[in-house]
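Lecture notes, continued. The same structure-token format from the folding unit now serves as the input rather than the output. Read the line below as a description of shape only.
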């Protein structure tokens, strides 16, 4: 590989890292391409990318960027998953895949420039995703006016019952 090809790879990785909210470094030692294909497909469905990288090129790509905390930790065979919109989704997919494959592991990550170890990534994967959090917040926000309307409807209903009872009493 000549310098121009290496520079192109570094620029491509740097561009992806700049856009990504999370970059997760994984160890895939002992897995074949066909065994990693389902992982790539799941990550792609979730809006993430997965790239096997050379450590020297990754160190240069991550340096001076939002995920520069990873550059000093790039050792051995590794691959990087980039999550763009929802960092929890990428963590969930990778941790789930690691549970099913003994040869695959999640090493560390950079979440918006903050270094995360394996335990923190697993904790992140246990959180609800962005869509679930938005739905929960919307449900909570919707409950307040709904309860308010229900409260006033009960007051009016009570008044109607009292007036009906008075009318019935006077008719007797």
């Amino acid at each position: 590989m000549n310098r121009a090809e290496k520079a192109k790879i570094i620029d491509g990785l740097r561009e992806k890292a700049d856009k990504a909210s999370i970059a997760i470094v994984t160890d895939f030692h002992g897995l074949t391409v066909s065994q990693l294909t389902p992982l790539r497909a799941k990550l792609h469905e979730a809006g993430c990318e997965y790239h096997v990288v050379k450590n020297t090129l990754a160190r240069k790509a991550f340096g001076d960027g939002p995920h520069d905390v990873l550059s000093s930790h790039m050792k051995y065979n590794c691959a990087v998953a980039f999550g763009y919109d929802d960092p929890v989704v990428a963590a969930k997919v990778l941790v789930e895949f690691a549970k099913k494959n003994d040869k695959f592991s999640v090493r560390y990550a950079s979440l918006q420039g903050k270094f995360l170890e394996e335990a923190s990534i697993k904790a992140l994967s246990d959180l609800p995703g962005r869509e679930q959090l938005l739905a929960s917040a919307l449900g909570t926000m919707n409950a307040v006016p709904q309860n308010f309307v229900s409260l006033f409807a009960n007051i009016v209903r009570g008044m109607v019952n009292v007036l009906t009872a008075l009318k019935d009493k006077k008719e007797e």
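Point for the exam: DSSP finds six helices and five strands in the chain.
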